Here is the input.
Amino acid sequence: MTGVTGVGPLVRLAVRRDRVLLPVWAVLLAGMAGLSASATVGLYPDLASRVQAAQNINATSSLVGLYGRIYDVTALGALATIKLGGFGAALLGVLGLVLIVRHTRAEEEAGRLELVGAGVVGRYAALTAALLVTTTALVAIGALTSGALIAAGLPSSGSIAFGLSWAGTGIAFAAVGAVAAQMTTSARGAIGAAGATLGLAYLLRGIGDSSDPDGLRWLSWLSPVGWAQQVRPYAGDRWLLLIPLLALAVATSAVAYVLLARRDLGAGLLTDRPGPATAPAGLRSPLGLAWRLHRVALAAWLVAFLLVGIVVGNIASDVGGLLNSAQARDMILRLGGRHGLTDAFLAAEFSIVGVLASVYGVQAAMRLRVEETALRAEPLLATAVSRARWTASHTVVAVLGTTALMVGAGLGAGTAYAAHTGDSAQIGRVLGAALVQLPAVWVLTGVVVAAFGLAPRFVAAGWAALAIFLLIGQLGAIFEFPQWVMGLSPYTHVPRLPGGPFGPTPMLWLLGIAAALTGVGFASFRRRDLG
Amino acid sequence: MIRVQGLRKSFGRTKALDGLDLQVSVGEVHGFLGPNGSGKSTTIRVLLGLLRADAGTVTLLGGDPWRDVTRLHRRLAYVPGDVSLWPNLTGGEVIDLLGRLRGGLNPKRRATLLERFDLDPTKKCRAYSKGNRQKVALVAALASDVELLLLDEPTSGLDPLMEQTFRDCIEQGRDDGRSVLLSSHILAEAEALCDRVSIIRAGRNVETGTLTELRHLTRTSISADLAGPPNGVASLRGIHDLDVEGNRVRFDVDAAYLDEALRGLTEVGVRGLVSQPPTLEQLFLEHYGNGSAGGRPADPAGAAARS
Ligand SMILES: Nc1ncnc2c1ncn2[C@@H]1O[C@H](COP(=O)(O)OP(=O)(O)O)[C@@H](O)[C@H]1O
Ligand SMILES: [Mg+2]
Here is the structure.
C-alpha cells in the first residue's frame, strides 16, 4: 500500500458531499463578477466618464485601501473589476481554505478518517484528494468567471488573466488551509488560523496600495492577494506574476505533506494546552455557556464590523468627489435620502451592514439547532434547566450580538466621519443610522427561532428568508416590483437614516413581528420532542 | 421512583415503544435490558421529558416528567448513551457546569471520582476518547447529591478496569440509598449489579423479575469428565447441544431437568465437573437469538416465574 492508495474513492466521496455547495459557489461568484461588470459598463458609457471615475478612485486612499488601485485609467475592464479583483480573490481564498479543512481536519476531528485510515487508504490520500478536488473546483470557477466577464463585454485576454488570478489566489490559500489543518486539532481552529493569514495578507496589500510609492507601497508585495492584483488584468495582463502564486501553492502544499508525515492521526502539531480543572464562576447558567461558546467568534465579527465602519466613515467623507458621473449621482439620489449625497451613501452602506449583521444573527440563532443535533442540548435539558431558559441563552446572544455589531459599525463610521468633518455631532447621527437596522435584523433571528421550534429540520429557512429579502431589495428597485412584494422584506421598512424621514411606526411593527416569531419559536419548542 | 404503564411512542412509522411497563422502587438498582433498537433510550428520554409520550402513564419521583421538568430534574442525574460534549471546554468545566445546573455537586466526591476513574479534568473535551467523555458524564452524575440515577448504557466505552470502578461506584450509590435505572446490553454488568431487571424487545416487556426468578428460564452448561463412555447421556431428558469426545461430555440442560441429568452422569462415574450458571447472555439468546415471536420460553416452569 502506497501513501496515496484510495485517492480515487475519496475524491468521489468529496465530490458527492460538495455536489450542491460547489455549483452554488461557482454560480454566485461568476454571476457576481459578470453582473457587476455589465452594470459598470452601463454606468460609464464613454471614455471621459470612465477616466474621471478611475482617477477619482485612485485619488481616494480609503477606496484604494479597500479594493486596490486602477493601473490603467482608460481600461474599462480595470474599472469594472476594481471591486472584484482583490476582494473576490480573497473570497476564493476563503472558499479554498474552507474546502481543504472540510475534507481533511474536519473529517479527522469527526473520527471519520479513522475509519478511512483503518481501511485500504494511504496516509496521504485524504490530503491529496482534498487538494485535487479543491484545485479543480477553483480553476473551474476561475474559468467560469472569465467566461462571464467576456460575456459582459470585456476583452478576453484580460478576462482570462482575471479568472486565473482568482483561481491562483484560491489555490494558494487552499494550501495555507492544508498547513493549518496539520497544525490544529479542530477544524474551527484551522479555518480560523488560515483565515487570519488571509486577513493579514489582505490588510498588507491594503496598507501597501494606499501608501506612497516611495513609502510603504512595498508591503503589497508581501501579500499573495497583492500578487494577484499585480497581474493587472485589463491593464497590462502581466501573466508572469501568476508564477509566484503557483510557487507559493506548491511550496506550501509540500510543507503540509511533510507535517502530515510527522504527526499522528487525530493529533495536531500544536497540541491543546491544558485548561482549568474547574469551571469559572460565570459558567453556571445556559447563558454563561452560550456566551462561552459564542464569544471568540463574536469578537472576530466585532473587529470586522469596526473596521467596516471605519472604512465606510472614511469613504463617506470624500464621497462627494467620487461619484462624478451624472448617472451615478442620479442613482444614489434616487436610492437614498434627500439630504445630500453623503447621507444617501451612508444610508445605503448601513443597509448592507445591516444585512451582514443579519448573517451573524441567523448563524448565532441557528446554534440552537446545531447544539440539538450534536446531542449537546440533551445533557443540559436533563438538568434543572427549562427549555425556555436554554432557548433564551442562544437567542439572547444573537440579539445582543447583532446589537454590539451595529454599535461597533456605527461608532466606527461615526468617529471616522466626525474626525474628517470636525463635527462631533455626526457620531450620534451616524450611530443612529446604524441602530435603526436592528429591528429588521431581529426579524431574521426571529425567523430562525420560529423555525427551530416549529420545523427544526428547516432552520435553514433563516438563510432562505435572508436570501429572499435580499433579492426583493436588489431586484425590486430594478424591476419595480409591486409595493406589497417589496413590503415583504423587513429591510424595506427600515428608515433611510441619516437624512431620511424617521417614523417609529414601522420600527415598532418590525419589533412586534420579531418578538412574535421568537415567541412562537419558544412556545413550539416547549411542545415538541427533542432530537 | 419510576412507574411506567402502557407507554407508547412512535417516530413516524417506527413504533419505538409499544405498551411498555416499568417499575423501579426506592433504593433499587434496576437493570433495563434489551437488544439495540429495542427502545431503552427512548424510554429514558420520555422519563426525562425530552420526548413526549403518545400514550400511557409515566410517573417519575411522584411527578409528571413532561410537566414538572425542572423540579424533578433537580433530584436526578442522567448519563446519556452517546455523550457529546463542548469541544473547547475542559472536562472539569463540564463536570462543574452540569453539576451546578443540577443544583450543586459534592466537591469531595468529585475529587474522589476523578481519581478513581483516572480522568484528567484539564483536557479539552475534543481530546477525549469516547470512554473518557463517558467518564466525564459519569463523574458529573455520581458527584451530584441526587436520589435517582438514569444511566443509558454508561459503560459501553469503558475498559474492563473502569467497568469494575463503575460497579463499585454503583454499589456505593445503592448503599447511600440511591435508586438507579441502568440500561444495558452488557449483561454481566446487570448480573453483577441489579436487584431486578426488566427485559424488553421491540418496545415491549418480555420479562421482569429478580435474577433468581429469571434463572428458571435458562439452561445450565455442564462439562464433565466421565469414568467410562457416556452411553445413557444422550437419552436424558432436557438435554441440548450435546457434544461427546471420548469420555468427555458437554451439554446444556434445562433447569427443571438438572437433577436428572446429574444423576445420569454419576451413574457412569464423574471424574471432573464444571457447571456454569446461566448468564443473561443465554437469557438473551433464548429470547431473541432464535427470533421466535414473543420470545416465550418453551419450559413451563418459566411461565410460573413470570411476574
Ligand atoms: N429520534 C428518532 N427518530 C426516529 N426513530 C427513532 C428516534 N429515536 C429512536 N428511534 C427508533 O426507535 C427505536 C428504539 O430506539 P432506542 O430507544 O434508541 O433503542 P435502544 O436505546 O434500546 O437501542 C429504534 O428503532 C430507533 O431507530
Ligand atoms: Mg440506546
